[in-house]
Design brief:
This is BTB domain-containing protein. Pfam families: BTB. By secondary structure, the chain is mainly alpha-helical. The protein folds into two domains: 83 residues, Potassium Channel Kv1.1, Chain A, CATH 3.30.710; 107 residues. 52% of the residues lie in helices and 9% in strands. It is elongated, with a radius of gyration of 19 Å.
């Protein structure tokens, strides 16, 4: 039996039955996509709100400014195919540095969060390297800070799957992170949601105890 994802796979940027154009712009560059309101609204409450009058839309055209073009297209493709594709996401293919993979997934999670594409958020989190996969990589404290800042700058929900992955990795690398002034305090003060996620992850990992 066909599912919504299988029946809409071939409809990405397809003018057939298209009832809305998505005009994505950034830095003076514009790209248009043929889209279908029913497909977008079925996956994204943000688009449902857009097309039901919460925000103004010119007839037949919705302009989306400011997003990274590649991330935006990846999100649209996911809405139609339920797949996130990038050569570096294949665990059998070496990507030049795990940092690049992490940054890409954080960006995808952020745009999915913005447009409320929950399935893509979960997908990006699932691809986020697991703790044991990252143990061989020596990230310095500045990169750890970058991971936290990149995610929690746009994060809406506490204890989302990406936040749990990040906090799990940090606690694995820095078991005393919460008590370490050199690293912990600036981030804990700057990002309250990170603080809550980290505390809850620590409690969960230690049977309800912080130490």
């Amino acid at each position: 039996m066909a599912t919504a994802s299988t029946t809409s796979t071939g409809m990405f940027d397809n003018p057939l039955f298209s009832d809305i154009k998505i005009r994505q712009t950034r830095d003076g560059v514009t790209k248009e996509y043929h889209a279908h309101k029913a497909v977008l609204c079925a996956v994204s409450p943000w688009f449902l709100g857009l097309f039901t009058g919460i925000q103004d839309v010119d007839i037949g055209v919705a302009t989306m400014p400011g997003d990274d073009p590649q991330d935006f297209e990846a999100m649209l493709r996911y809405i139609y195919t339920q797949e996130l594709k990038h050569p570096g996401l294949d665990r059998n293919v070496y990507w030049d540095g795990a940092e690049m993979k992490i940054n890409y997934l954080l960006d995808i999670h952020a745009i999915a969060d913005k447009y409320e594409v929950r399935g893509l958020q979960a997908c990006a989190s699932e691809h986020f390297p697991l703790v044991h996969e990252l143990e061989e990589h020596e990230f310095d404290v500045y990169f750890l800070e970058l991971i936290v800042e990149t995610h929690y700058r746009t994060c809406i929900d506490n204890r989302c799957s990406m936040g749990r992955r990040i906090c799990g990795y940090i606690l694995k690398r820095e078991p005393d992170f919460i008590k370490t002034g050199r690293v912990g305090h600036p981030l804990l003060k700057a990002w309250p949601k990170f603080t809550q996620d980290l505390l809850e992850e620590a409690l969960e990992n230690n049977g309800g105890r912080l130490c």
